[in-house]
Design goal:
single chain, GMP Synthetase, Chain A, domain 3, Rossmann fold, Helicase, Ruva Protein, domain 3, three-stranded mixed beta sheet, 22 helices, elongated, binds adenosine-5'-triphosphate, ATP binding
């Protein structure tokens, strides 16, 4: 025989032992129901809580009960609803919404854009690796890349690839619960759960998925409690062998104000970079978009040379490229003309002017030598001291990233060096920026000033 008061005392002792937040999350919701044949039964809002308590706190609770003179061998949990709640049910929110939402499938995650599929994703050198990794994750099997971390600049296709993974899974493995959402939606749900005191539901919701995809994770950097919760969610899922896919605008180690333990966890799977588009990829994307449009508007005629012109002149960002085409299509159908070079130049004058601003290797070399306070001639010249060699490799890396110049062309601008030297320099910096935060910060800073 055990009284409610004795149980409350045990709970209060647990409060002291586990701390306030764990107490609120896990112990407070336990409502004593019966003690029979050495089995203490409590009701809980969700079975998840029961399982969690069993795994993490059962021994401690049994020990405290023994100290209070109660012989308990094990704990058992039943899920309560409003009608069956025990006499001292706390102000716990009903569990129904989370339980019902638990098996929600892809459709109940954030809205997925229909057209963001693998079929509509054009693959080229700059995004081949990211595409292959995304495909592999969508296929499933043993979780080889966990997490898959996709990063790259604006409009390079991160969201498209994430939606493509989700679409693919929905089609081929409908039994999986796939949750896709942006990091700000994660934060919004977290803050709402806190405010409405529904943290249990929140935790249950996120820990019950098979695949978690969080887009633009840089958004939670600097938001302390959201980061913390994200970290726990991440660990719980990863430990349970669930697939996680994350995207951001830069590499894990380069996300400002993101705690180290989180960035190193994010970097613990496969980290893949979507590089700025090159001419071939831009042309391929343009051709594919025109084909898609023409399948519905066969009257559209695009003169020879227009797509090549656009692929040459418009920036890396695929969003800008798409926007240009959409404007051209609208304009052409309005005036009932074919899209030729003249119409293109008229219609896109502002976009073309804006993308005229190209970063040059000269500019990069100047900025880098200023930043490291060395002479331009030393940056380009033959001296091999580390204090020159490292900035030189950084300038090579930036030239590769921010211009469309080939390795031999870059080599020529660095005192006539061979393209293999440039390749070595670029690789070295690629390695260092993963491990050396000073270098990765320098790169980010230089990139920003150059892109202004
Ligand atoms: N390789 C590609 N093939 C076809 N379309 C692409 C490709 N890359 C990007 N796009 C298109 O470009 C647009 C921008 O892509 P997306 O939103 O995925 O970029 P993002 O990397 O998530 O950008 P941001 O960081 O700004 O959110 C989308 O309409 C997408 O369909």
């Amino acid at each position: 025989m055990m009284t409610q008061d004795e149980w409350i005392n045990v709970k209060q002792e647990m409060r002291g032992a586990v701390g306030e937040s764990k107490f609120t999350n896990w112990i407070e919701p336990l409502v004593f129901e019966t003690l029979r044949d050495g089995v203490l039964t409590c009701s809980v809002p969700t079975l998840f809580i029961g399982n969690y308590v069993n795994q993490n706190y059962a021994d401690q609770i049994v020990y405290l009960l023994a100290r209070a003179g109660q012989e308990v061998e094990r704990l058992s949990f039943v899920v309560r609803n409003d009608e069956t709640a025990g006499p001292q049910q706390q102000k716990q929110q009903p569990a129904a919404p989370a339980a019902a939402g638990a098996r929600r499938g892809v459709a109940e995650s954030a809205r997925l854009e229909e057209r963001y599929t693998f079929d509509t994703f054009v693959v080229g050198k700059p995004n081949a690796l990211a595409h292959a990794a995304a495909r592999r994750v969508a296929e499933g099997g043993p979780v080889a890349y966990n997490p898959l971390f996709l990063y790259g600049g604006n409009g390079l296709g991160k969201t498209h690839l994430m939606h493509a993974i989700a679409h693919d899974m929905r089609q081929n493995r409908p039994e999986l619960d796939v949750l896709y959402l942006s990091a700000d939606q994660f934060m919004y749900r977290f803050v709402t759960a806190l405010r409405e005191r529904k943290m249990m539901d929140f935790k249950h919701f996120f820990r019950s998925v098979d695949v978690l995809m969080v887009d633009d994770v840089q958004f939670i950097a600097g938001k302390d409690s959201t980061q913390e919760e994200f970290f726990h969610t991440f660990n719980a899922l990863a430990d349970a062998g669930k697939q996680i896919v994350i995207s951001a605008d830069c590499a894990p180690g380069e996300i400002r104000d993101l705690e180290n333990r989180i960035s190193s966890r994010l970097a613990s799977g496969l980290v893949v970079d979507l590089h700025p588009t090159d001419y071939e990829l831009r042309l391929g994307i343009l051709q594919s978009k025109v084909e898609q449009y023409r399948s519905q508007h066969p009257e559209l005629v695009v003169a020879d040379g227009v797509l090549e012109f656009l692929a040459h002149r418009i920036s890396n960002n695929v969003r800008v490229l798409e926007g240009s085409l959409t404007r051209l299509f609208a304009f052409a159908s309005l005036v009932g003309k074919e899209i030729n070079l003249e119409l293109t130049q008229d219609c896109l004058a502002d976009i073309l002017r804006a993308s005229d601003r190209k970063i040059t290797i000269d500019e990069i070399q100047r900025k880098v030598s200023e930043h490291y306070n060395i002479r331009l001639s030393d940056l380009i010249g033959p001296r091999r001291m580390r204090s020159y060699a490292r900035p030189r490799q950084i300038a090579m890396w930036l030239s590769k990233q921010l211009t469309n110049r080939s390795l031999p062309e870059i080599g020529k601008r660095f005192g006539g060096r061979d393209h293999t030297t440039i390749m070595h320099g670029v690789r070295k910096i690629d390695e260092l920026r993963q491990t050396d935060s000073a270098i990765s910060e320098d790169l980010e800073m230089l990139r920003r000033t150059l892109e202004q």
